[in-house]
Amino acid sequence: MSVELLATTIADRAYDRVRADIVFGSLSPGERLRLERLASEYGASISTLREILSRLSSEGLVIAEGQRGFRVAPVSPAGFEDVAAMRLLLETYALPLSFMAGDLEWESRVVAAHHKLAFMERRMLTGDQEETELWKRYDREFHQSLIEACGSQTLLDLYGGVFDQYLRYQMVAVVFRGEIAAKEHKALLDYALTRNAEKACEVLTQHVNGCVAYTLESGALK
């Protein structure tokens, strides 16, 4: 492996790890990101980490403060509402396109993604919250699978970034609405298989708005 390729691989891995730790809450909102500590933890040089944090700043996950360095972007009720609105805008646009174009292979991926999510939701309903991160990863996978046949990689990439910001808020608040959310996910699966995009968008709107209301009422973002 060439030196250039090795450096790229190290940088990519470090980027993925830092980003995941922000999204899933290992790096807390507002936390100061000290380059020396990060270099030791993520096995990347300070210059590489500075580039990574600048990139994450452009994604809205990190705040660049000039000479003061970087910190994890804070969270707020207004911020969650904004991210949720953007998520709904993109997802309700992509759902009809995906439902129209989706083939049997797409259906299989949607069913498989829901199967994993439903398994974790059943565990959560018993009070087992030891694998919250895995539950949310499956949640992301299911919603991504619903729109993956939309025909636009640009739209999917944009949606992925917005969903991760939405997910970060959920991880901070550890939002699980129980049986209501599980039933909404099952309804989305059913409407995907019957290609009923109108009903799916209605359920999705209830799903996202319900999550936002539940989170704000809990006070976890204050």
Task: Give structural notes.
The protein is mostly helical. The protein has two domains: 3-72, Arc Repressor Mutant, subunit A (Orthogonal Bundle), CATH 1.10.10; 77-218, Up-down Bundle (Four Helix Bundle (Hemerythrin (Met), subunit A)), CATH 1.20.120. It has nine helices and three strands. The chain has helices spanning 3-23, 35-42, 46-58, 77-101, 104-125, 132-147, 153-173, 179-193, 197-218; strands spanning 32-33, 62-64, 70-72. The chain has a three-stranded antiparallel sheet with strand order 1-3-2. Strand 2 (62-64) and strand 3 form a beta hairpin. Helix 5 packs antiparallel against helix 8 (179-193). The longest helix is centred in the middle third of the chain and has 25 residues, at 77-101. The radius of gyration is 19 Å and the shape is globular. The protein starts with a helix and ends with a helix. Residues 1-7 have low confidence and may be disordered.
Brief rundown of the structure:
With 222 residues, the protein is mostly helical. The chain has 9 helices and 3 strands; from the N terminus they run αβααββαααααα. It has helices at residues 3-23, 35-42, 46-58, 77-101, 104-125, 132-147, 153-173, 179-193, 197-218; strands at residues 32-33, 62-64, 70-72.
SS strand fraction: under 5%
CATH classification class of the largest domain? Mainly Alpha
- Coarse structural class: mainly alpha
The overall pLDDT, averaged over residues, is 90
Task: Name its key features.
4% strand, 9 helices, three-stranded antiparallel beta sheet, single chain, 222 residues, mainly alpha, Four Helix Bundle (Hemerythrin (Met), subunit A), 3 strands, Arc Repressor Mutant, subunit A, disordered N terminus, 2 domains
